[in-house]
Specification:
18 helices; about 75% helix; mainly alpha; about 325 residues
Length: about 325
């Protein structure tokens, strides 16, 4: 037996009290090289032969990431759900699951994932920030938003590194305060300061970008969101928000570019997010392609009806479908 193999056996024995599952050893090598198709095959091979091995949870976490990188988001979520069901105290599995749900447009599911996780795990800033961020993204019911805000505030520090926490607290307070009040304005100022910092996390930029779009400050929102693309050029919500800015009337109105951005956003979610598909339907409508707009809008409505809770912009989507249906029939 080669020295490397002996070292591997010793390492596995110390960690797991078992001999190595060589399919997973090979899979890990493929994973590190970015060969996700080969890694998936080897992870699954090991799971078939060693399904009760204590290292199966690590294998499933790595397998879920391979599936995510290959665009198999539903399968990736299934693997994470298995780990969470078997190991409810796995902080890493809970965080990965919630982040994937956010990526897929399942914001309220992500909030509930973190809420359940925090019943079994001591809260920390990262977990509590994700809980509140998901609740904000979903425009969750008031009681859930308030609970998420209290959870984050209970663990938040004055450390300047808690940038996401500061942004999410400010955004939540904006949602909960009436526009025009001193409390609302103070929260907006705090969010603007955090999101405008060089290198601010893209989640902070998205939060403030949404505010700017709501306020009609489209050019400023566009500049801010384009800056965030350097940090996360594939995040669906970022792409679809940027697409929205090109559908607003003004100097830089560009429906075709909005359609391209929204299409990419939908592709990145594997066509599972009603919000991103809603924006794509709007883009098709602006491009004059009412048939495609109706098809995509109808699919967005179907997906929205399957979400936990309800799709936030369902009324606007219904109006779009109604207008397209009457126009198509005519």
């Amino acid at each position: 037996m080669q020295v490397e193999s002996i070292g591997l056996v010793v390492k596995w024995w110390k960690t797991w009290r078992t001999l190595p599952v060589f399919a997973w050893v090979k899979a890990a090598a493929m994973y590190r090289q970015g060969k996700f198709v080969d890694a998936e095959r080897l992870y699954r091979k090991g799971l078939r032969t060693s399904h009760s091995h204590p290292a199966q949870y690590c294998a499933r976490l790595d397998l879920s990431y391979c599936l995510f990188r290959m665009g198999k988001l539903e399968a990736a979520e299934e693997e994470l759900q298995k780990v969470v069901a078997m190991l409810p105290n796995s902080r890493e599995a809970q965080l990965r699951l919630a982040r994937l749900q956010l990526w897929r447009g399942e914001s309220l599911q992500a909030a509930w994932t973190m809420r359940r996780a925090l019943r079994n795990l001591a809260p920390d800033v990262e977990m509590a920030s994700l809980f509140l961020g998901a609740a904000i993204d979903a425009r969750a019911p008031k009681y859930l938003l308030e609970e998420a805000l209290r959870t984050l505030q209970s663990v938040q520090t004055d450390d300047d590194s808690d940038v996401r926490a500061k942004a999410f607290v400010a955004r939540a307070q904006m949602i909960m305060r009436r526009p025009g009040t001193p409390e609302h304005q103070l929260a907006r100022t705090q969010l603007a300061q955090v999101a405008s910092r060089p290198g601010a996390p893209f989640e902070c930029v998205i939060a403030f970008g949404e505010v700017l779009i709501e306020e009609g400050k489209v050019a400023l929102a566009r500049r801010l969101l384009r800056r965030a693309l350097h940090a996360s050029s594939e995040y669906p919500r970022l792409l679809s928000l940027l697409a929205e800015t090109y559908l607003r009337s003004g100097t830089f109105y560009n429906a075709d570019y909005a359609r391209q951005l929204a299409t990419t956003a939908c592709q990145k979610t594997s066509w599972t997010s009603p919000r991103e598909m809603h924006i794509l339907a709007e883009a098709f409508y602006h491009c004059g392609d009412k048939i495609s707009a109706l098809v995509v809008a109808s699919r967005a409505k179907e997906l929205g009806s399957k979400l936990l809770g309800s799709y936030t912009h369902s009324r606007t989507l219904d109006d779009l479908i109604s207008n397209l249906s009457s126009g198509t029939q005519a």
